[in-house]
Specification:
Helix content is 39%, strand content 15%. The chain has 341 residues and is of the alpha/beta class. The protein has a single domain, classed as Rossmann fold (3-Layer(aba) Sandwich), CATH 3.40.50. The strands form 5 sheets. A 7-stranded parallel sheet has the order 3-2-1-4-5-7-12, sandwiched between helices. A two-stranded antiparallel ribbon has the order 6-15. Strands 8-11 form a two-stranded parallel sheet.
């Protein structure tokens, strides 16, 4: 079996390739872009897509990436024309010194390690948005959130829609709803245009639900079927949709689900990986009647279409994993049904 993506350079190039629609959006967008939390899983390629899309549109603007950079990454960002600033975003005085920008990408969030340090999770997910809104109240903000603010819903349905009432399970999900509410709180009186992106499981070959499943199949580990269904999206498509959301930011905030078009079966995907990698597969448990699922039709109509479907992504992941491609070592723990991460 072969794969079209064999090196990290190729992967990063694919992840950061802007669509024609992204180029159009960035061409019409005025002002600089600052990416808060650029050091996370999605940040570097998203910032690079913003750079490439702006250049392709013929727009001269600063793309500024902000993070604590504990794992480095500043040099690579600068190599691609992105300014890198080290900052503890929980320090309001430090945030006040960040450069002005008409457009803010808010990628900051904490999920893993929440159990045992719930207070820290609330500070990052719910307090920090207020700090950012105070600093950038004259800007347009696109903020990443999560589909975890929704409850587990019937696995036979299409998933939660943007108009459904949030019912977060566990303190992580509660703090993420807190993030959304704080953005809404500041958006309404100050007229800050905000788009809130409820993302469900981006995948970039080095992490994601598909990567978790593929690595378990390769290692001969049993696959838990309790959370029997899921959504996922190629990270390059998710980044494109996030950038396009600048054109739809509003006050009060616009809520948009971002994920793939398909409801995927854990059992079927694991069996497909077993076939592609010539490995046996073992299962434990049975599929529950409910799962964490999002209906992406509204977001896809507004910000799509997608370039990479689930079948292609599964093949890419299988090829990457079986060849020993690097993992970020950050499992999604998508199988958690009690909201503990």
């Amino acid at each position: 079996m072969s794969s079209d993506i064999r090196t990290e350079d190729e992967l990063e190039d694919r992840l950061s390739e802007p669509t024609a629609a992204v180029i159009e959006t960035l061409g019409a967008l005025g002002g600089d872009i600052i990416v808060l939390g650029v050091g996370g899983k999605m940040g570097p390629s998203l910032a690079r897509m913003a750079r490439r899309g702006s250049d392709a549109a013929g727009v001269r603007r600063r793309i500024v990436g902000v993070s604590r950079f504990r794992a480095g990454g500043e040099t690579d960002l600068r190599k691609h024309g992105i300014e890198a600033i080290s900052c503890d975003l929980l320090d309001a005085a430090a945030v006040a010194k960040l450069p002005d920008a008409a457009n803010v990408l808010f990628l900051v969030g904490r999920k893993f390690g929440s159990t045992g340090d719930e207070a820290g999770t609330w500070a990052i997910n719910s307090y920090l948005p207020g700090v950012v809104c105070a600093r950038y109240r004259g800007s347009r903000i696109v903020a990443l959130s999560t589909g975890n603010v929704y409850p587990l819903v019937s696995a036979s349905g299409a998933g939660s829609r943007e108009t459904d009432s949030p019912q977060p399970v566990g303190e992580y999900a509660m703090s993420c709803l807190g993030r959304e509410r704080v953005f809404e709180h500041f958006s309404r009186p100050y007229g800050i245009p905000v788009a809130v992106i409820r993302l469900n499981y981006a995948c970039d070959l080095r992490y994601g639900v598909l990567v978790d499943l593929a690595r378990k199949v390769l290692a001969g580990e049993p696959i838990d079927l309790g959370m029997g269904y899921f959504n996922t999206i190629w990270q390059g498509d998710a980044s494109a949709m996030v950038l396009r959301a600048f054109a739809h930011a509003a006050s009060p905030p616009k809520i948009i689900n971002v994920t793939g078009t398909e409801k995927l079966s854990v059992r079927a995907v694991a069996e497909r990986f077993a076939q592609l990698m010539n490995r046996p597969v073992r299962f434990t448990g049975t599929e529950a009647d409910t799962a964490l699922l999002s209906d992406a039709r509204y977001g896809l109509g507004l910000l799509g279409p997608l370039r990479v479907g689930a079948d292609q992504l599964i093949e890419w992941v299988a090829g990457w994993v079986i060849r020993g491609g690097r993992s970020l070592g950050k499992p999604t723990h998508f199988e958690s049904r009690d909201g503990r991460f």
